[in-house]
Design a protein that fits this description.
Blueprint: H1 5-20, E1 27-30, E2 34-39, E3 42-47, E4 54-57, H2 61-76, H3 82-114, E5 119-122, H4 124-156
Antiparallel strand pairs: 1-2, 1-5, 2-3, 3-4
Helix pairs in contact: 1-2, 1-4, 2-3, 3-4
Length: 157
């Protein structure tokens, strides 16, 4: 299973996405009186004089992230059925790209949505999430290449 390169690509992508479930911040919003951090568990804020972040906005981004991780994990275990593995890898890549685009849009337009007159800065979580997209793409390409190789061998026989 791990001897194929697409398995390694999927495994790295799963590790990068799993790191987000530790609660690492994706974006941070700073204004004159408050600081806010956005993670997969929601938006948390604190006043400048407080030390603890309080939950402000919660939505099921973590559930979508867990679904994406499980989809990639199940893709990893479909190594004997290349047609199914390719289809699932393409679905997980599309979901990964759509979620990445939504995070980028939230980064660019999120300051006005979360806290007006605040400055938005990307955190390590954004780069962890976006770093998994090339690995998902490379996994799809490697599965296609593996499938083409097996189809050409079948044609020779």
């Amino acid at each position: 299973m791990i001897q194929r390169i697409q398995s390694l690509y999927l495994f790295v992508s799963i590790l990068l996405l799993s790191a987000l479930l530790s609660g690492v911040a994706i974006l941070s919003f700073t204004s004159e009186e408050t600081d806010s951090k956005f993670s997969v568990f929601g938006l948390f804020w604190k006043n400048k004089n407080e030390e603890i972040f309080k939950p402000d906005l919660s939505f099921p981004f973590y559930a979508i992230l867990i679904l994406l991780i499980l989809l990639q994990l199940s893709t990893l275990f479909q190594f004997k059925k290349l047609k199914t593995q390719l289809k699932w890898a393409q679905y997980s890549f599309m979901l990964h790209v759509l979620l990445g685009l939504s995070l980028l849009i939230f980064w660019l337009a999120g300051a006005e949505l979360a806290l007006p007159s605040s400055r938005v800065t990307p955190e390590i979580g954004l780069f962890l999430f976006l770093g998994g997209i090339p690995f998902s793409f490379l996994a799809v390409k490697a599965i296609k290449k593996d499938k083409a190789l097996i189809d050409s061998v079948d044609r020779i026989r």
